[in-house]
Amino acid sequence: MTAALPDLLFDSERRFGTRPALAIRRGLRTELWSFADLAGAARLAAIRLEAAGVAPGDRVLALAPNSPELVVSMFGTWLAGGVLVPIDLRTPLDVIARIAEQTEPRLLIADRSVDGLGQVPRASPFQLKPSPREAHLFPSALSLKGLKGRGGASLPSPLEEEGPGVRDLAEIVFTSGTTGAPKGVMLTHANILSNVTSALDAMPIAVGERLLSLLPLSHMMEQTAGLLAALAAGATIYYTTSRRSTAVMAALQRHRIGLLICVPEVLRLLLAGIEREVERSGRRQHWERMLRLAGRLPMALRPFLFWPLHRRLGGRLRLVLCGGAALDPQLWRTWEAVGVRVIQGYGATECAPIVTSNRLDRRLPASVGWPVRGVGLRLAPDGAVLVRGPNVTSGYWRDEVATETVFEDGWYRTGDLGSFGSLGELRLMGRKKEMIVLSDGRNVFPQDVEAEIERDPAIRACIVVGKPKPGGGEEVHAVLIPADDPDAATAAVRRANVRLGPHQQVSGMTIWPEPDFPRTPSLKVKRAEVLALVEQGQRGAPPTSAAPTSDHLAGRLVALLARASARPPAEIRPQANLALDLGLDSLARVELAVLLEEELGCWLSDEEMADLKTVAELEAALERGGSIGTVEPLPAWPRCGPARLVRSVLQQLVLFPLLHLVCRPLRVEGAPICRGGLRGPALLIANHSSHLDSVAALSILPGDRRRRTAVAAAADYFFQTEPLATFSALALGAFPFHREGAVSTSLAHCGDLADAGDTLLVFPEGTRSPDGRLGAFKPGIGLLARELRLPVVPIHLHGLFAILPKGRSCPRPGPVRARVGEPLVLDPALSNAEATQVLEAAMRRLASPDPSPRST
Q1: Which candidate among 146, 210, 313, 510 keeps its CA 20 to 30 Å from the CA of 178?
Q2: What is the pLDDT of residues 343-360, one digit of tens each?
Q3: Largest Cα–Cα distance of the chain, in whole Å?
């Protein structure tokens, strides 16, 4: 029986061993952690935490982005007997200081220093994971000797008596309020483990299922369902470094995600991006007809009807678990229509957190489902939802008054109002404190009015608040973000009033001046802030899209362009040419696109970036809003088993014999690493003087490496026609590499190939030499080499220019020398430009007439 949270991990380690448990894409590569890796790292983290002074019962603050290292820190804390205090990264500093004052932590786990925490020592999550020199300790040889007899070499096994017990405190989770004294919810190992079981009941997860983690691990829904339940089921959890819709779409596609756990706002943002593409393509009517047709089809057939969309979502997305806020029934219906099941649930941090959930085979719109196993649920006379069960907290940390306030005869008062439907399902009507009380005593639930207003396409988002009236009571006040025209938004409210009941009539409205409402870490709208600004009488012109307003955009854009181009801001004029005046080549535009997304939340595709000529054109494109950010996947067929076999036969029986007819002789000199000394994927770089370069470089590789080598071929030459593209992919294992335009897509594909275990052959000069001499390396090779984190092997090919130079179609036989350099491991501290210089220097040394390298 699982006694505490670390036992859940150790049980999964026994069952799933070397299967991937966690994954994160950093730069161009995806790092994988097996269950054995994770369990071993947690043991080592516990040792290091105890060495840092963490004793059973000590509080440990965790303030870091989602990552495998954070997960290791969490399990290490529990294993050492500590109490985790997870904090969202966006928590204001003064709130963090108040949390620290209440909990008196022994240690802060964070990537950065935090002001106001006094003398609390800090450790980075990366300091708690094993170093490369400790890799030999994995997966199970690392014992816990020194952890006060806590199992020793017998681990992984259930913890012995001195380890954390099922009733011990595991976490103190602070609610997201930003005023007054924050309340810390106390959750034991038993509270959380009981809810893990409930999550698996509501959300069946298959072994090997791929799950995308979006919410911060300081959020209990992400912890319980997105981490612990997934680990218990043997799933693989993928972490993203960004929660923007473009990054989410890219992750869904790249990792072929099957299960998504998120709040409704994520589904809304993804759907908004999809519908923008529909509008741009002029297929709105077709899209709506398809949605109507899908409603009459079985769920199993709907993905085929919307296959182009599912392909952009990775082709595997089958299920979404949604909670944390109210889910618009129409949003639910749209996702269900395209063939993605959406299970809506309800919970609270105090309940660890799941209280109710729909079921995979029983999903109702506008309902949060039925109580999960072991949880009791009833309604108070005023409609308040009351909960009790093994998942419910015992109270708030060092706050007896707050604890007594929320419990009624052993039942926890959630603060939500609800009712039961005809099938016994729970339907929520909103927070009791958000209910609008009219002057005549009647009650209005904001969500009912919001749903009616947001039905209108003129409204992008709406929040309804109770605005106090001078004579007492409140008026129903709508705060709107128009889809486009403010006048159309006003008309939309008038149309909604026709459909609303007499007591629900909207009597006032405000146009919100920002692209979005203020939100909590779980993306709930901060209604109190919205109401406060409304009461202050703030007004503003609405933006025309989700992009920043024009005046704001201009100043931010100048600053970003100055960073990307290393030019003074005074030179960033509207008519400045991005290439000629600012020196932004294709690679620099890739880096600029990253800055635009990270700093402004605006996404432009490679093709859009390549078409822009001036600063003014860039600003106009950002104001229009970019397209949805997805990376077109590489065709899988060239790397399947049959294609590799055909390629090997073609090369051995046709290409290499023809090569040796004109390369007489072909000598190989230098380091013998390509003959078997180099293990795993590598980055091969070669000079480019002839169309024979790829075949010659492949011919000197051993068969096992050659079969797993992909050649970066110019997309604008080898992939312009279907026959040439097919031949290049089949005979050479070539993939399209864009020299202009979609450069970031090409770089991403290189990372995907390296993740799959393929060696890459790249020509850093970018084009064939006009005179046979080595040309300057493009700066992109430095970025590629640094991001791929692979050993780089330089290969210099001499003689091929004389045989088949640029402009000649008939080869003339002659001698060829292939000189292979030692593998290079780049210092990660190097800049892209410095890395490029290192690689070019290595190639120039090989190109020199020094006869010292031996023949092989």
Answers
A1: 510
A2: 999 999 999 999 999 999
A3: 100
Q: Are strands 122-123 and 169-174 parallel, antiparallel or unpaired?
A: unpaired
Cα dist. 456→280, 491, 495, 497 in Å?
20, 10, 9, 12
Question: Could you tell me which residues come within 8 angstroms of residue 856 by beta carbon, excluding any fewer than 6 positions away?
Answer: 668, 669, 670, 672, 675, 820
The 10 Å Cβ neighbour count of residue 706 is 22
- Residue type for position 515: P
User: Tokens 């290439």 identify what position?
Assistant: 579
Report which of 479, 474, 384 is spatially closest to residue 437, judged by C-alpha positions: 474
CA distance 418 to 436: 15
Calculate the alpha carbon distances from 522 to 262, 674, 751 in Å: 9, 51, 31
Nearest to 627 by CA among 276, 134, 129: 276
Cα 481 to Cα 806: distance, rounded to the nearest angstrom = 58
Order the strands of the 459-468 sheet from edge to edge: 459-468, 474-482, 508-511
Which of 217-221, 633-637, 652-656 has the least mean pLDDT? 633-637
- Residues 6 or more apart whose CB falls under 8 angstroms from that of 324 comprise 215, 219, 221, 263, 264, 522, 523, 524
- Give the 3-state secondary structure of residue 705: helix
Q: Which amino acid is at 24?
A: I
CA distance 23 to 239: 6
For the record, the structure tokens of 758 come out as 């393929």
Tokens of 305: 């009807």
Instruction: With a cut of 70, say whether residue 138 has pLDDT above it.
Output: no
The least confident of 45-59, 381-395, 556-570 is 556-570
Query: What was the pLDDT predicted at 625?
Result: 54
Q: What is the DSSP letter of 392?
A: S
Q: Does pLDDT of 152 surpass 50?
A: no
Tokens of 556: 């931010």
In one letter, which amino acid is 825? V
If one compares 425 and 159, the residue with the highest pLDDT of the two is 425
Alpha-carbon distance 838 to 326, whole Å? 55
Q: Per 3-state DSSP, what percentage of the chain is helix, strand, and coil (rounded to 5)? A: 40, 20, 40
Nearest to 325 by CA among 262, 269, 263, 416: 263
Question: Which H or E run includes 270?
Answer: helix 264-280
- B/e letters for 122-161, b = 16+ CB within 10 Å, e = fewer, are bbebeebbbeeeeeeebbbebebeebeebbeeebbebbee
What 8-state DSSP symbol labels residue 243?
A: -
Helices (H), 339-485: 400-406, 446-453
pLDDT at 364: 93
Distance (Å, whole) CA 186 – CA 190:
11
Answer whether residue 391 shows pLDDT above 80. Answer: yes
273 vs 631 pLDDT, higher one: 273
Q: How far apart are CA 596 and CA 229, in angstroms?
A: 36
- DSSP string for 427-469: EEEEEGGG-EE-TTS-EE-HHHHHHHHTTSTTEEEEEEEEEEP
Amino acid at 835: A
Q: Which of 249-263, 351-365, 416-430, 578-592 has the lowest mean pLDDT?
A: 578-592
Number of residues that this document lists for the chain: 856
Q: What DSSP state is assigned to residue 824?
A: B
Q: How many CB atoms sit inside 10 A of residue 381's CB? A: 5
Of 183-187, 242-246, 685-689, the poorest mean pLDDT is in 242-246
d(CA 59, CA 87): 12
**Rounded Cα gap, residues 347 and 355, in angstroms:** 5
Question: Which residue has 């919205």 as its token pair?
Answer: 530
Do β-strands 792-798 and 814-820 pair in parallel, antiparallel, or remain unpaired? antiparallel
Q: How far is it, in rounded angstroms, from Cα 806 to Cα 689? A: 7
Amino acid found at 38: L
**Exposed (0-12), middle (13-18) or buried (19+): which is 736, by Cβ within 10 Å?**
buried
Residue 287, number of CB atoms within 10 A of its CB:
17
